[in-house]
Amino acid sequence: MVNLKIDNFDVNVPEGTTILEAARQAQIDIPTLCKHPDVDPSAGCGMCIVKVNGRIMRSCCTPVAEGMEVVTGDAEIVSVRRTVLELILSNHPNECLTCIRSGHCELQDMANTFGIATSHLPSLNKKAELDDSTHSIVLDASKCIICGRCVEVCQNQQNVWALSYLNRGLATKITAAGGIKLADSPCIKCGQCSAHCPTGAIVEYDETQKVWEMLRDPDLFTVVQIAPAVRVAIGEEFGYDFGENLTGKTYAALRRLGFDRVFDTNFGADLTIIEEASEFVERFTKRPESLPMFTSCCPAWVDMLEKYHHDMIPNFSTCKSPQSMVGALAKTYYAEKMAINPEKIRVISVMPCTAKKWEIVRSKDMSSSGYQDVDVSLTTRELCRMIKQAGIDFRRLPEEDADSPLGEYSGAGTIFGVTGGVMTAALRTAYFYITGEELGDINFAAIEGLDGVKEAEVDIKGTKVRIAVAHGCGNVEKVLDKIRVARENGEEVPYHFVEVMACRGGCVSGGGQPRVMMPGQPKPRGITDDIRKKRAQGLMNEDLHAKNRLSHHNEAVKTLYKEYLGQAGSEKAHHLLHTHYVARPKYDKKS
Ligand code: SF4
Ligand code: SF4
Ligand code: SF4
After folding, report:
1. CA 95, 98, 102: angle at the middle one, nearest 5?
2. pLDDT per residue over 106-130, tens digit each?
3. Is the CB of 144 within 6 Å of ligand 2?
4. Is there a single domain that holds both residue 201 and residue 249?
5. How much is the pTM?
6. pLDDT tens digits, residue range 59-70?
7. CB within 8 A of 332, min separation 6: which ones?
8. Percent of the chain's residues with pLDDT above 70
9. Distance 86 CA to ligand 2 centre (A)
10. Which of the ligands is closest to the CA of residue 510?
11. What does the alpha-carbon distance between residue 200 and residue 139 come to, in Å, rounded to a whole number?
12. Do 335 and 250 share a structural domain?
């Protein structure tokens, strides 16, 4: 441990801690635009300067030392920070009036804090061509402050290497590596770059106007569904605590916006479990050579598989994701039941995710209903924007229920939004399918939490099922390597069933979730594991207190099979609820 003084407070922290981290632990706020809790310091912005024994240094990359005396904000420091900010702003377009990030922008917040109304420096900013080629995220290099967070997250957290710096000095810019379009790059559309960007340089592909137009059209029948993780993050935009579950209010807000039916993706999650658990049991008992089986509900992981891991394609569950299942059923089963012309139905999903925008057009399988199954996929942030545009007072909304039948769900459906949740839900049902009995303890503590790779063995009546859960794409390689080594050596594969989520913590911290940014308040800035845990807990609590915690006991799902699909894995179920994967050209990530 190291003893030092920060602003005259005694601070005691482990050796190797940086001054910035030590200050944060002591509840002392040092401004920074480049250091995010998830990434290593890049020393890019220069805002975090402090005085160490009278000398100005960057606190994000200076380790503490015994007896150090640190001053975090005297007149000279404030003056240098102002100059740094003015230099940054001189290369920024100052388009706050029309920028999506306005009100949630760390640069804007910092400029306000330092009272910089106008910069007296000449503008060096050059308009950049927008890269909206992925239709998931939009990169506007003219708003980039070269903090490096996105590059760090894309390369090191996600191990995708889509983003890179181009040029040098003042001409430096962030772009898809090689200066190509993002859609032609290794990008898997996870949106983690956008979730970590402090400015409006990388944002979600906004489709709110498209949805407003659908809502205005009296000929259309609009159906909306919300993903599990949306309900525990939406409140952050309306002043609620992290992780507060606001399902009922979200349904109410969607009705006020004008949607004709409000469904829940959790219904689709229960259905996914029925199909996926059946698929797993079939592989496990009849086709062990097809193991391990990978979950397939994360589109960024699907994208990664199709681009990089062609040898694993036969191991992928063929199940579509919950949003796609709900979309396909809304335009077939529900349309027939209610005698609505499916041509007039528009399905809008609200997801924590930017990759879901790509998923809905991924292949022709996504139009199995005869129409595009999901017409628009909005992020949680876009829904919040629509609620604010409509002037809805979210806090005063009553709690409402979703519509039947595609709005009914179990606790197992809810936990899809958190790492380990899909596996837990699937095991509950697979156990029942294999043994004909319910599991005694339906919680799997070994696969909860934020360890990058979690492994466990589940005893199903004397048969050991080996499972693994990975989240954050950078962790997936470890699991795949183990499988490949076992295959090469002719050994038994190390796992039978593997869950993968591209985002750290699972969808609760997806690329489309509200930005953890409180204008005018010093903390917190940027999502932390603590916040991920709170959002996850919000979902796990709902499961814990649910009347039904098992997908195979969802009465609406049972009725769907009885009335329409027949049984799990039937021809009709396969046509509507399953998909195929194709090997797409491989990228050399680091070239
Ligand atoms: S969306 Fe994901 S993969 Fe694409 S550039 Fe951003 S972080 Fe990288
Ligand atoms: S795009 Fe955003 S995160 Fe990336 S370097 Fe620029 S400002 Fe930073
Ligand atoms: S983990 Fe969830 S939010 Fe992240 S890319 Fe996958 S589906 Fe989207």
Report:
1. 80
2. 999 999 989 887 777 888 877 878 9
3. yes
4. no
5. 0.95
6. 999 999 999 999
7. 342, 369, 370, 564, 576
8. 97
9. 17
10. 3
11. 9
12. yes
Pocket test for ligand 2, best of 42, 158, 197 (most atoms within 8 A of CB): 197
Instruction: Count other Cβ atoms within 10 Å, centred on residue 97.
Output: 6
Q: Counting ligands in written order, which one lies closest to the CA of residue 301?
A: 3
What residues does ligand 3 touch, defined as CB less than 6 Å away?
A: 190, 298-300, 352-353, 355, 501-503, 506-507, 510
Q: Would the CB of 348 count as within 6 Å of ligand 2?
A: no
Ligand nearest to the CA of 230: 3
Query: What CATH number did the domain enclosing 198 receive?
Result: 3.30.70.20
Last residue of a domain, which of 176, 205, 234?
A: 205
Tell which atom from ligand 1 comes closest to the C-alpha of 161.
8
Task: Assess whether the C-beta atom of 190 lies below 6 angstroms from ligand 1.
Answer: yes
Residue 72 belongs to a domain: yes
Domain of residue 193 covers 124-205
Residues 190 and 217 occupy one common structural domain: no
Both 251 and 158 in one domain: the answer is: no
**Buried-state track 134-170, b at ≥16 Cβ within 10 A, e below 16:** bbbbbbbbbbbbbbbbbbbbbbebbbbbbbbeeeeee
Residue 586 belongs to some domain of the structure: no
> Number of folded domains in the chain?
3
How far away, in angstroms, is 502 Cα from ligand 3 center?
A: 6
Q: Which atom of ligand 2 is nearest to the CA of 151?
A: 4
Q: Is residue 438 within 8 Å of 297, Cβ to Cβ?
A: no
Whether 154 lines ligand 2, by a CB cut-off of 6 Å, is no
CA 498 to each of CA 212, 270, 520, 543: distance values in angstroms, whole numbers, following the listed order: 39, 18, 43, 22
CB 229 within 8 A of CB 539: yes
Using CA atoms, how far apart are residues 44 and 49, in angstroms rounded to an integer? Answer: 11
